[in-house]
Amino acid sequence: MEYRKRVVDAQVSMLMSAMGAVVLEGPKACGKTMTAMQVARSAVRLDVDANARAAAAIDPSLVLEGEPPRLIDEWQMEPSIWNHVRRQVDDRQANGQFLLAGSSVPADDETRHTGAGRIARLRMRPMSLFESGHSTGMVSLSGLMSGQLARSTDPGLDVPEIARRVAVGGWPRFVDAPVDQALTAMRTYVDEVRRTDVQRVSGVDHDPDRVLQLMRSLARNVGTMTGVKTLARDVAGTEGTIDHKAAYAYYQALERLMVIEDQPAWGPHLRSKARVRVTPKRHFVDPALAVAVLRATPDRLLDDVELLGFLFESLVIRDLRIHAQAMDAQVLHYKDNTDLEVDAIIEAVDGRWGAVEVKLGPGMADQGAETLLAFVEKIDTEKCGPPSFLAVITGFGLGYVRPDGVQVIPMGVLGP
After folding, report:
1. One domain, residues 115 and 135
2. Which has more pLDDT, 43 or 151?
3. CA 194 – CA 214 distance, rounded (Å)
């Protein structure tokens, strides 16, 4: 399969030139190995090489031998590799020695030393629409943060195609597959997570059916600030009881597998006395996982526009995260005690910020703009600075700048 360039490629190269080792973290099947192989000159894959796993268990330094940059794929299968990589980096006193790719985060271990100053971490996610070829990239997120205006032609996306992109997701092996094959693959992925992966990363017995019930509750509440206790109660009310402690344990396991990724809250300085909510929003790393958990299809999503709207927002958040990371920015959300809510805040390390409302249909742009303008009135811009941009991201239509300064951007033109 021909390699498709990823937004994260440039970040990998930059970090490899600056650090002794880079850890590339992301969910299974998001493309980590192929991305790492574009840089590596030698590799060992612990997930498929039983001899290498056995050698690593006896003496982890054995699997580090090879021409640098050396890729250690699925390194977390033998977590002691971390300390040996750190030591090798110290001994060699050279950058770009190792790439560690992993699809789960090992449990904290007091015997594993910090990699500060030696090892950099980089998150990888499934493909954005730009990476998969479903967005023109005509409008750059970094350009928006620099004050550029987002005028664009209609990229040609329509609601049925958006439903397909939501259901298929950005998984490299399936992004061009027939929809029915992609749906089957994602349901198999979810089944493997609930049956095997959760227990593997948690180290304790679990109930696969209860894990699935929790994932279904998450899928029904995607893009909301629902707490884990509430998710557990939701399960109890629909599909049988689940202890809230078990729910927390399952949730943490899903986080370590990077199957879910919370969207933190933004805490700006306010002019008003409104109080900012600090609860994160709940998202799967890719909306296709939510579709698979619910056993939905593009046609069913078209019959449930409200659900499609929530999943479209989750898709937008996925892509914003990918593009924001490329400029060392983060994607947050805002909600206060007056229930004023903004779907996404992009905050750069230098303090610049922009705000985004997500609306599936361009006919809702007025509502989104009204929310954004009311939000800015609450922000103490003397302390936070003015927004670099305000935008309503829509599913389709033209890109233009409204008289009030709010930009309307169809999803099919967004890029890094």
Report:
1. no
2. 43
3. 10
